[in-house]
Design brief:
The chain is α+β, with helices and mostly antiparallel strands. It has four helices and six strands.
Length: 127
């Protein structure tokens, strides 16, 4: 079974993105020691090297999004995030596992899960 692991960043410490200001997650990351920062990078690298994992990508912050809807045949485009979501999705990966328990075990290894964020594990429907 394949699973999508959606990484909800919330206020979990993360490095500053190019051209970005300072928010709570960036400030939390910058307050960590060099050893703690390196441990986070090592943990993400280890997750990405786990057999069955297809690394995903980091996403830009929600403010950079464009929302698209179609109403009455017209495409409506709105700048920004207009969904009610407390924990913005910061990235994703896919994982081919024997069962949900294996996917949950992997999700628990993702640093965001233990540092204030969460990881949503969702089965991928294959047609």
């Amino acid at each position: 079974m394949k699973y999508m692991l959606l990484i909800h960043q919330a206020d979990a410490p993360r490095p500053r993105r190019e051209g970005e200001g300072n928010d709570r997650a960036v400030a939390a990351f910058e307050s960590l020691s060099d050893d703690e920062k390196q441990a986070i990078f090592r943990d993400y690298q280890a997750v990405n090297q786990t057999p069955g994992v297809t690394p995903g990508l980091q996403l830009a912050p929600p403010e950079a999004s464009t929302t698209v809807r179609v109403q009455d045949g017209r495409t409506l485009i709105t700048d920004g995030p207009f969904v009610e979501i407390k924990e913005a999705i910061g990235g994703f990966l896919t994982f081919e596992a024997d069962d949900l328990d294996a996917a949950i075990e992997l999700a628990a290894r993702i640093p965001a899960a233990r540092m204030g964020g969460g990881v949503e594990v969702r089965p991928i429907v294959e047609w």
